[in-house]
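Listing 4. Sequential folding, example run.
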Amino acid sequence: MTMWFAQSRNPNAPLAGLKVVELARVLAGPFCGQILADLGADVIKVESPEGDGTRLWGPPWVERTDAHGTVHREAAYYHACNRGKRSIIADFGDTDDLAGVKALIAEADVVIENFKTGSLAKFGLDYAACAAANPGLVYCSITGFGQTGPRAREAGYDFVVQGMSGFMSLTGEPEGHPVKMGISISDLSTGVWAANGIQAALLMRARTGPRQGLGQQVDISLMDSSVALLSNQATYFLTTGHNPPRMGNAHAQVAPYGVFAVSDGHVILAPANDGLFHKLMDLLGLSHLSTDPRFLANGDRTANATALDAEIAATTIGWTKQGLLDACHAAGVPAGPINRLDEVFADPQVVARGLRVDLGGMPGVRSPFTFSDAELALDRPSPIHGQDG
């Protein structure tokens, strides 16, 4: 008997009816699965008897009671990337469990897996074996370094990849230590890229042509995803042969552009062209700097950024945060606060966009899609370990 829903979770969701088997744990793979679940897919998370390890990555902890009255204590971390799914337990070393997983995959549209390269072959759960049973399958493999290359069989970890990919060489103060980002950017971006690649492969499967009806493997890695995000910093190096400098909060090509102290905190000021620079100087009472030869054009300002920032900082310290932000808003100068998370989720814009969701008493952040003629499937919290089989 099939486990798949007979009816889609939300018929008005973009991926309504899509069947996804998730053989993934921790962050990148589950985050990809959650994006597809938010978009309406039926995602069945296959967990080992021990469960996804992030269930134990607390504090903070969340307690829930299942239908049998049993209290389950799980880490909040786990709930950040498993909303909208169902959970079954399978021991790949058990013949019946393994057969059940293969039966699910035989009916699925998508598999997401993040095992080390080659390690699923011994169970007959590798791409070749699964595609032989289900030629239309889109099989997404998420690894540290990809299916090919000298590091293909190495495990990958977000922190390590942040260092290897160049992120940390670009993050932090110029004279300070390299710094990782405050979020798991390599894992999370890989999850986003993976969801994009999966949907591209599904579109190709649906398109008329020699591959109509056929799936394929989507090979994506933390390293590839991170290097792809280097963007303008990569082209800086590729076109000059020089490593971009670590700039802290400054910008290598624009000035003024940074964080400035006020009497009760800090604000970001980002006047990124001549007109905005003149407006900022006027409102700060520094109009004379607009005609100073050191600051006439952006190139001049960038070359003399230290002196310009000092002039601005000497003035902003006499403002309150809200006073300066209001003045910048009125003048059309890009500026903003540096919010703590309590301030983020109290922000009227964040509230108006409904980014916080509460499902079954579990708070979270929805995927950031807003469609004109579709909606997200936000109908179930993260599953309790094995609650569906």
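-- end of first protein; second protein begins --
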Amino acid sequence: MARYAGKLRRRACAPQARLFLSIHVCTGRSMNPIALTQFSHGGGCGCKIAPNVLAEILARAPQGLVPPELLVGNETSDDAAVYLLNPSQALVATTDFFTPIVDDPYDFGRIAAANALSDIYAMGGSPIMALALVGMPIAKLPPEVIGRVLEGGASICREAGIPIAGGHSIDVLEPIYGLVGLGLVHPDKVRRNADAQAGDVLVLGKPLGVGILSAALKKGRLNADHYAEMLQLTTQLNRVGTALAELPAVHAMTDVTGFGLAGHLLEICKGSRLAAEVQLDRLPLISSAVGFAQEGMATGASARNWLGYGNQVRWPSGAAAWQHALVSDPQTSGGLLVSCAADSVAAVLHTFHAAGFVHAAAIGHLQAAGPAGVGVDFGGV
């Protein structure tokens, strides 16, 4: 029976050998390395359908029923659906799944689960249970490796205080894992991406650059310290969203994932009919990702994102190309993006920092849309 073992190996990589994590299957005769990312054409939230293509697909979908109890649907591309149950409770429902962003199956499960639950926190809710979504190439991955993916997801759900109460599995060509997440929120505490106000300050909870680190991992360029930082950020639950929703001056929230900072900020702008100004020199960035970006490393999803919404982003002529890559970089289990009243910024930052989000920073503001219309202006070069 096949067995797996997680090992740190050294791979020659100019100019020096670097550490990377791999999984081996022991068949009795030989040890064959299994790197989960070799099965996927994309990884993490970077495998999302490009925003312009997705908009075209959804435009062709028939309009479904919209009962009055449906407080949040798909009208503004929000993070989750919200359905009114009674005057003091609303159900928050979301689903998220993707292909591997890392090679280690346990870590893959943890990242995917944290990413899925983030949508509930972004609405101001608290998760109550989850269902697992599992698609695996059964002929290529042994049960023990698949089991480790499930263990990783279950560990994050335990950290969130919820059970995985069931799920569904299929045999597919690429490994896929994620969750259906269900949560509760008081109807007055729902934080939509369409309720931002002119004059609001934008606060970002996590640094940018996860997509670039995933690209570096696939190229064998990520050392052990870089990997540990990536894992810490992508498995940090955004449960601070529940506390932020208790602040009346927090008007809107979303989480930054596959469409990058620029893409998800555009969703706030469109939903709220506002324009945004962001200072590039205020963005929290993963330092190692900056180094890779300066070398020209980026994901394919970053280019697809820019192709999808670049005409709605006003970019300063003096900005460097690597900065361009970071604002469209697909984030997996990225940080919360908060729109709050200017006089509440200190309280919002304190809430983030007290919850362990040490990189949280104010990055810009929202204003009434001018002649250029709804969009995002980047400055601070």
